[in-house]
Design goal:
The protein is an all-alpha fold. The protein has helices at about 1-20, 25-45, 50-55, 55-75, 80-110, 115-140, 145-170, 185-200, 205-280.
């Protein structure tokens, strides 16, 4: 039971760390789930007398453990989605300052070269879109009630950012965006394309896998919330297991009493038969 209690504490910490994007914790989490399940099956395979004595405690523990196990497996099954989302967030957070610096550089160059107000405005909006993309990825990672809205906004902003970036490099009349021809500004656009390549190439995957991350977050919260109850059920089960010898002692005593009574009855019957025989003689 002490081993199960230690596993349950580790399970809580591992589920939190795994959902937080710690890739190395997923393997350990799977192992802890397997070990806890193995220990539980060992209890289920106890002798019939033990199972009868612990029927209520075993049922109470099973109810909590089955929910905890299910939540844990939601996390491990969504490992790829969780890692992808955290990689995106890390890449964006690292690239965002440079993205904004490059856009500021483009804006300055456009102003120096007397570019149209519309062209300057497009470059400024790109910087704002990049920042909002980063914020929405962070909101998706947190997995709050607005995670779905954040995912929709991310998909829209990331797609728009990529299209506008291409239009600024080659011109797009349908979008009303003129080509930027300043050599220094073009170099900045190329650097922006490289910085944003990881995100732009994964927009569909990120959007489609955001619900997986949300489910993992919910499962982690369920494990954290259910941890005190799991510990309580383990305590109840442990206490009952410790009391089994005394309960069995009472049962053994009762058996000895019955056997003793039967033995005395046999002696009494023998005496009566012996007395009857003597009378006949």
């Amino acid at each position: 039971m002490a081993e199960l209690r230690a596993y349950s504490y580790r399970l809580t910490a591992l589920s939190r760390d795994a959902t937080g994007g710690n890739k190395s914790e997923f393997k350990t989490l799977r192992q802890v789930i397997a070990d806890m399940d193995k220990a539980w099956k060992a209890l289920q395979n106890a002798d019939n007398e033990t199972k009868v004595q612990l029927v209520d405690e075993l049922a109470a523990y099973e109810s909590v453990w089955s929910r905890t196990k299910q939540s844990s497996e939601v996390i491990t099954n969504n490992e790829d989605s969780i890692i992808l989302m955290h990689d995106v967030a890390k890449t964006l957070n690292e690239a965002l300052p440079e993205l904004q610096a490059e856009h500021d550089n483009i804006v300055e160059l456009l102003l120096e070269n007397k570019a149209s107000a519309e062209q300057v405005s497009v470059a400024q909006r790109q910087s704002w879109f990049a920042e909002r993309i980063g914020r929405n990825v962070d909101r998706m990672l947190r997995g709050g009630l607005d995670a779905d809205k954040a995912a929709d906004e991310f998909k829209l902003d990331a797609s728009r950012f990529g299209k506008v970036l291409d239009a600024m490099k080659s011109c797009d009349a349908s979008m009303g965006i003129a080509k930027i021809s300043n050599p220094q500004a073009v170099e900045s656009l190329d650097r922006i394309s490289k910085l944003f390549a990881f995100v732009s190439g994964s927009i569909k995957d990120i959007y489609e896998k955001s619900p997986d991350l949300f489910s993992a977050r919910q499962s982690t919260n369920a494990i954290l919330d259910g941890s005190p109850l799991l510990q309580q059920r383990l305590t109840e089960l442990s206490d009952q297991i410790k009391s089994l010898p005394s309960k069995r002692k009472v049962n053994n005593t009762a058996i000895l009493v019955v056997v003793g009574c039967a033995f005395l009855l046999l002696i009494l019957i023998g005496l009566l038969l012996n007395n009857a025989t003597n009378k006949r003689l």
